[in-house]
Amino acid sequence: MEHKKNQLKIFCDNVKYLRKANGISAREMCRILKISAHSLKSLESGEVPPKMSVSVVLRLADYFDRKPFQLFSPLEPEKMED
């Protein structure tokens, strides 16, 4: 169970990292992912909203040209070195 929680935390960190690294506003990221501002804030704070759909993962992967599984591994360069 701990491994699953860790992967979800990494996913949340990656949402925030990809948005900021690509200069995307929170409003634009909500449009891309088709989620509310509240849901994005929760994600970027490390919490996956209870009714979050897997389609969010797929939209994020598609928009940033990643494979969905890559979003569950650290993307930030400094976190990859840890």
Automatic annotation (TrEMBL):
Q: Which Gene3D superfamilies is this protein grouped with? A: lambda repressor-like DNA-binding domains (1.10.260.40)
Query: Any idea where the HTH cro/C1-type domain is?
Result: 15-72
The record's InterPro entries line, in alphabetical order, gives: Cro/C1-type_HTH, Lambda_DNA-bd_dom_sf
Task: Give the CDD domains listed for this entry.
Answer: HTH_XRE (cd00093)
Molecular function in Gene Ontology: DNA binding
The protein's name: Helix-turn-helix transcriptional regulator
Q: Which organism is it from?
A: Fumia xinanensis
